[in-house]
Amino acid sequence: MSQSTEPSVTDRDAAEAGEVAREDAHVGTLYARLDALREQTAAQLAEVRRTLATGTHQNRFERDAFATLYEDRLSQLWSVENRLCFGRLDLREGTQDPRRYVGRLGLADERGTQILVDWRAPAAQDFYQATAAAPRDVVRRRHLLTAGRHVTGLDDEVLVAADGERTTGDAALLAAVTAPRTGRMGDIVATIQAEQDRVIRASDRGVLVVQGGPGTGKTAVALHRTAFLLYTHRDRLARSGVLLLGPSPVFLRYVEQVLPALGETGVVTQTLGELYPGVLARGEDSPEAARVKGSLRMVDVLDAAVAARERVPEAPLRFDLDGTRVQLRPEAIASARTRARRTRKPHNVARVTFVREVLNSLVNALARARGVDLGEEREDLVAELREDRDVRREVNLCWMPLTPEKVLAGLYADPARLEAVAPQLSPRDRAALHRADATAWTEADVPLLDELAELLGPLEETATAARAAADREEQIAYARKVLEDFEASGVGNPLVSPELLADRFSGTGPSGTVAERAAADRTWAYGHVVVDEAQELSAMAWRLVERRCPSRSMTLVGDVAQTSNPAGARSWAQALKPVVDDRWRLEELTVNYRTPAKISRVAADVLRSAGIAANPPTPVREGEHDPVAVPLTGLESVVEHVRDRFAALDEGRIAVVAAEEHGPLGSDAVRAAVAAVLPAGAVAASPDDLDATVSVLDVHRAKGLEFDVVVLLEPAAVLRRPRGANDLYVALTRATQELHVLHAEPLPRGMDHL
Ligand SMILES: Nc1ncnc2c1ncn2[C@@H]1O[C@H](COP(=O)(O)OP(=O)(O)OP(=O)(O)O)[C@@H](O)[C@H]1O
């Protein structure tokens, strides 16, 4: 009889308990080191603050600089409290540092020995990249499961199996993807998968497009890539800033905790509607209007709209200057306009040339009429002309200083004016642009306002602004020198830029951080731009994004099978052609971590039935619950169904997704009806509230979000929307556990077997 050499279950349990205890002790020392660093930094900060009040101007500046370093370091040390260390990497013997602990930041002990590797550092890369097929130098990858500061369990993947060891893994990933949702996105540092890691660590040069179906982690990857780039190119990006462009304010709130949890706070996160400082785009466009406004044809329309504001009158202009009559002929005005346009400067800047030329003509006429010597009297005559109200009015009527808002509102409010500058648009397209409240700005207006701002230029560049800019340059130069001195003495903090320091120095900080200044400045050039749901950007929006990032260092993540904007992308090649031609590279994410296979099969069938060519991603798990179809017999049946789901829910969140916001089965009506029967606070009062258990949303607002249970109302109505198949695909891929479809109409093709 052969004797089994396998260790018994009890032996294995005891061994694992011993390992957990050892890891717990080790993680304890990491936290102890973290605490010590916090104390040390807090003491240094207190000391600097104590001495800040005294000394010379320069002394105070230098100490203020130190305070900034310590404050930033301290907030970083506090941001990593949760799951400080989540993994261990065992490398082949003979490798340098064969045992590496991986966590949210790098730590060294008192002797300077590295005890924790930042997940973004090259030394941590194998933690994410090694696979059983290509183990690199990795023998074992260990995930530490933690609660508070304690290790509660282990998940080992043995990549090069020694005798008797099993090759397991995936438990940490499966635990993460099946966990109940909280309404806020969490980070995935502990379980980033190899294909995601490649994207996160890809070079920042040029345009990287990340195409991936629903749930493939595009948003997660976009956020982790942002943190990675800031870590790797800290010097450059701390100065120029990173812009993360998201599809809606609610989406930005959904993801807002991820970057701070990764120790990054200086990223500008905005929606397209916020990208034109001073305008808040709250209005909604019809699909028709969105399509017209997003089209490249608007470039010529706006150009013509500005040109039409540079007028030559048909008859001569006549002026009476203190009894002297002079006239200005249309030819003279036309010639002034030609000269002004030849400068190729924006309208408001070229106006200076126009006014000078017109005044030249008038001054000649005036000198002739009065019989005075131009050489001697010129200055007085020009001053007289400039002060004359009639002259000022007529010159303004020919070439008015303009704002983008004024020009665009003028086009929307006045069909005749629009027709004059946009003969290439069909009457139907022009009608779609008309609106009663011309300044109820929408998201699709923002790229147009921005385009006009380029065509018009600033209203006036004042001498004070120029002086302020010069002062600031001087302060920044000085701050840079101070930081260099610090670095030379080993106290450098890459989080602090000379600009930030200069702001603190001049008393404008913290409102003057790079992020805040960038967000307020329309002409800011970001060092890197990350766009999530990039498929939704129109051609006009792409022009705006390109202007914000002249270096074209961009990461664009999205899914062309989910496009709902009528002016959005059908393919990446078509969308990017006018922006960067074919100078972009593509990475694809292929695994769906959100939606179980039982549900994603339905979504894939819908897509296929609609003839949309796309490769739906492969679900990482089968799931437990088959999707169900239930008859819908009016609002009451919806309420009843949601009440049942709510009663059955242990943890997590429910979304009710309607085709539209308004109407008898729209999200507004359903929200009110459901809130009336569920306990107070259980139903989100608005689509923007992410914290309640039940959210009622129209399909447009559900984009990018996810919920444990999704109750989808009347899919046939979703399908009727413009790009309805894409919208239905989005709605069907929001659930992490259960999908319930309520319908009165026949189910769309692809769902009919439910
Ligand atoms: N490597 C991972 N480990 C754990 N969870 C992950 C991982 N990758 C993705 N997830 C989870 O999968 C879910 C979907 O991720 P995410 O929202 O980033 O997908 P997406 O591609 O942006 O989806 P969509 O296109 O539908 O908006 C999230 O809950 C995310 O945390």
From TrEMBL:
Q: Which organism is it from?
A: Kineococcus rhizosphaerae
> Which segments show compositional bias classed as Basic and acidic residues?
9-21
Establish whether keyword Nucleotide-binding is in the entry.
Answer: yes
Q: Where does ATP bind?
A: 212-219
Q: Where is the UvrD-like helicase ATP-binding domain?
A: 191-596
UniProt record, GO biological process = recombinational repair
Quote a single Gene Ontology cellular component term.
cytosol
Enumerate the SUPFAM superfamilies for this protein.
P-loop containing nucleoside triphosphate hydrolases
Q: Which UniProt keywords apply?
A: ATP-binding, Helicase, Hydrolase, Nucleotide-binding
InterPro entries recorded: DNA_helicase_UvrD/REP (IPR000212), P-loop_NTPase (IPR027417), UvrD-like_ATP-bd (IPR014016), UvrD-like_helicase_C (IPR027785)
Task: Cite the PANTHER family for this sequence.
Answer: DNA 3'-5' HELICASE (PTHR11070:SF45), UVRD / RECB / PCRA DNA HELICASE FAMILY MEMBER (PTHR11070)
Q: Which PROSITE patterns match?
A: UVRD_HELICASE_ATP_BIND
Per its record, how is this protein called by name? DNA helicase IV
Q: Where is this region: Disordered?
A: 1-21
UniProt-recorded Gene Ontology molecular function terms: 3'-5' DNA helicase activity; ATP binding; DNA binding; hydrolase activity
